[in-house]
Predict the 3D structure of the following.
Amino acid sequence: MRVLASAPAKIILFGEHSVVYGKPAIAAAIDLRTYVWAEFNKNGRIRIEAKDIKIPGLTVSFSESEIYFETDYGKAAEVLSYVREAINLVLEEAGKQKGVTVSITSQIPVGAGLGSSAAVAVATIGAVSKLLGLELTKEEVAKLGHKTELLVQGASSGIDPTVSAIGGFLYYEKGTFEELPAIELPIVVGYTGSSGSTKELVAKVRRSFEEMPDIITPILNSMGKVVEKAKEVILADYDKEIKFQLLGQLMNINHGLLDALGVSTKSLSDLVYASREAGALGAKITGAGGGGCMYALAPGKQSEVATAIKIAGGMPMITKISREGLRIE
Ligand code: MEV
């Protein structure tokens, strides 16, 4: 028996980093997916085969290797540690010790802030739990995904695995979520081509918080307020134009606050400013920062903004919100 599961990437629309401190955040699943096949093997060990793990400047292909997460393949090794922890958690949950082989293929660039680690963890948990006969709900998969992140990263809000497992458009706060009504958001994602480590960036914000709590706390509080206001705007009965205008303004404020936390880079800010100059109503980092991606809200201007991102040295992606989270194929 072979089980195939897939899970989507995500973008955080508002509230990354402050969400780790118990503030709310808004995120959406997007239409790039990671696919994981799981089957039993006879040698009783965990075997991971990863094809097409996309790391900026490098496509790593592994096959038939059992220990490569212990090698120094850098970012690939980091991704694979999520897979290993996810498999171990499911085996523990099922109370079974079995040899399991998982094969991974992914459309999501690693370290781009699009939730590649959460997607691989969620798809692995989905496939392996089904293989073991565990009937987990999507919420239970999200919780195990969160545990996986805590084991690998040390700190995590749980938003990435929750969005990847549930799909759609979510308001998330302290482990609970609310589904927001689907609104068509004309966005463009811009990839800097470099990657940031969520673990390191979360640790960097933590250090600033501990060194200067009086300064960092009001920044995190403002981010929380930005998210509450964004939710209010999304749910309000305004016409689209006003909604987009207000959301764009809130995105720009959120970007400034993330910059103040020290998680932006020159290339991220270049793409943000290029997008605004090309007519985007708002543009900000999405995800942990330190490289990775930004996104712009650009009604009627998506192709102009995509061109501006390209000229500024980034890689534009015009993407859609995916209603579907974890899927057993
Ligand atoms: C990463 O996509 C989002 C962060 O807020 C970390 C987390 O919430 O676990 C930076």
The chain is about 45% helix and 25% strand.
